[in-house]
Amino acid sequence: MSLLSLIFDALLGLGLLWLAWRAVSSPGLFASVVLFMVFGFVMAITWARLGAPDLALAEAAISAGLTGALLLSACKAALTDTGNDNELPDEPSTVRRRWPAALICTGLGAVLSIVMIQVAANRAAVPPALAEAVTTHPLDNPITVMLLDLRGYDTLLEVTVLLTAFLGVRILLEQTELPRLHAPRATTPLMVDPLLAMATPVLLMTALYLFWTGMEAPGGAFQAGALLGALGVMYTLTGRFEPLDRTPVLLRLGLILGPGMFAIFACLALTWSEWPLAYPAGATGAAAVAIEFTLMISIAVTLTLLFSATPGLHARHMGVRHP
Amino acid sequence: MSGILAFSLTAGLLFALGLYGMLTRTGLIHRLLGANIMAAAVFLFLVVLSTRATEAGADPVPEVMVLTGIVISISLTAFGLVLIRYLRAMTGQATLPRSGREGDGHSGDD
Amino acid sequence: MNSFLMSAGLFLLINLAVGLLRLYRGPGPADRIQALLLFGTTTVAVLLLLAYAEALPALVHVALVFVMLAAIASIAFVQLPHRTGKD
Amino acid sequence: MSTWLAIALILIGCSFFLAGTVGLLRFPDTHSRLHALTKADNLGLGFICAGLAVHDGSLTGTIHLLFVWALAMMAATVSAFLIARWADEEPEH
């Protein structure tokens, strides 16, 4: 078993290295993008091997769904923006300063590897205070405990980072007229309609399920929100959501819901405790669920808008179809 | 866990590969991929660090940090891609402007 | 049984490594995307095998998320214009 | 008994994956590769799910695995259709 695991891990590592190498060194944009997407898949297997299913879940939702769509849309934008109809554009001069960079990176890689192996070879225990806090907490999953309780700020910052990135994108979009991308092609109802009809309820239910099991098993607000965001991206890609050049009020509310709840809760917490973000005694579970739920909605809305790179979206009426 | 050696070696080399991509490529999307690979290397190393504490289960702190890190790197990528489109709309190409065509050691780097 | 599951996973991983050859060779975008499809399915299978080999039932959820989002890449891909730019 | 059944099913699944990979590498054009890939792989995934379900034996586990397989087939159907049509529209061939 252990020899088997060793071979498995070594193969995973080699695969990661080869994929990374090809992704940064292959000349074409499209080839690199696909290689990077596969890199994400292998990364998910690696998290699974390292016994970190939380990360595997996040990586799966992000690299299988969102990053791929994002990077492929970037390929499309590269074609549209340059008006280059013939080929996915390669760079003008693909590689420069190859030898000095290779020398520096080889040296750095060697030093880093040696240091990392030595650091990782030392066993370290979980600090006792942390271990005790984790084991005596009413919520079971230690990662969730960390996310919700010991470092509530962490989740707040996560959603804030997403929101900030979206605000940045929105500011950029106001600065300039980017060329409009071609309208989505896959609007034909033939195969995509049944897919969406099935995928929508399944994704919604799975997101809720992941959210709920996140209390005692890996999962939780971010993973569930990422799934919902992927659903939104799917709707945008197939033309069911259409871009707007303003942000509708409902979407603004969705964007701010999670951070807003967090902030209100932090202030309210000062009435029953001297610390912001402290849960009321006896209602920890309920408060945590309420906050996580609003965070999930905000994460979903922010991811959809961020990945569609538009200030706003609205549902298109699909009522009358022309055969 | 047997993977510690293999994965810490991988993490070190991955970081170097990502950096190599960022230093040598001129295309900005390729550079963004390089930055993402560097981030993945850091995440990998943090998780390896968290699994080595096996007496009382894995140490949750690095894993939570990596979860946040994944969110940050995805936000960075999304923002970066829009920034690249913006640059392309301004200058007509997706590379950083350079002062001289050859032999300038410092310009055009992130 | 566990080492059997693990070796099945290893076999699929080797399979995946061989499939990388198609990704390397191309030639067209459609071929690369096909390789991506293969990797998606194989990754799901490896995750399922690992879930039982390592007794981590949460990995089944990971596999579930993977297959649910598998179609997005294809939908995003067919938005790309063809190389000759007929679109 | 059920252990052997599970092993047999998983082995069959692996062989289908092998077939899919060989097809992806050896077949000459996009459409035949697509044909080899989407059918063989999802059958292989189905056998592996079946084998793991036999190994697991619990109802929830079986439902999860069945769900994974059903979704994989749905996604593969749509993907194969979209990619095949995309390749068809490509004017060069």
Secondary-structure class of chain B: mainly alpha
CATH C-level name of chain B: Mainly Alpha
* Beta strand count of chain D: 0
Main sheet of chain D? none
Helix content of chain B: over 70%
Count structural domains of chain D: 1
Strand tally of chain B is 0
Chain-averaged pLDDT of chain B: 78
Q: From the coordinates shown, what is the CATH architecture of chain B?
A: Orthogonal Bundle
What name does CATH use for the topology of chain B? Helix Hairpins
Q: Which outline of chain B best applies?
A: elongated
Mean pLDDT rating of chain D: 86
In N-to-C order, the SSE pattern of chain B is: HHH
Percent helix of chain D, as a range, is over 70%
What letter string, H or E per element, gives the SSE order of chain D?
A: HHH
Radius of gyration of chain D, taken over Cα atoms and rounded to an integer in Å = 16 Å
Distance between the termini of chain B: 38 Å
Report strand % of chain B.
under 5%
Q: What number of domains of chain B?
A: 1
Structural class of the helix and strand makeup of chain D?
mainly alpha
Main attributes of the structure:
heterotetramer; A: 323 residues; mainly alpha; 2 domains; two-stranded antiparallel ribbon; C: 87 residues; 3 helices
What would your notes on this structure say?
The complex is a heterotetramer of chains A (323), B (110), C (87) and D (93). By secondary structure, chain A is mainly alpha-helical. Chain A has two domains: 1-82, no CATH class; 128-316, no CATH class. In chain A, 72% of the residues lie in helices and 2% in strands. The longest helix of chain A is centred in the N-terminal third of the chain and has 30 residues, at 53-82. The N and C termini of chain A lie far apart (59 Å). Chain B has one domain (3-91): Helix Hairpins (Orthogonal Bundle). Helix content of chain B is 71%, strand content 0%. Chain B is built from three helices and no strands. The longest helix of chain B has 32 residues, at 60-91. Chain B is elongated and about 50 Å long. Chain B starts with a helix and ends in a 19-residue tail after the last helix. Chain C has one domain (2-77). Chain C contains three helices and no strands. The model of chain C has no long low-confidence stretch (mean pLDDT 83). Chain C is mainly alpha-helical and 87 residues long. In chain C, α1 runs antiparallel to α2 and α2 (29-53) runs antiparallel to α3 (58-77). Chain D is mainly α. Chain D has one domain. Chain D is built from three helices and no strands. Chain D has helices at residues 2-26, 30-56, 59-89. Chains in contact: A-B, A-C, A-D, C-D. At the A-B interface, α1, α2, α3, α4 and α5 of A face α1, α2 and α3 of B.
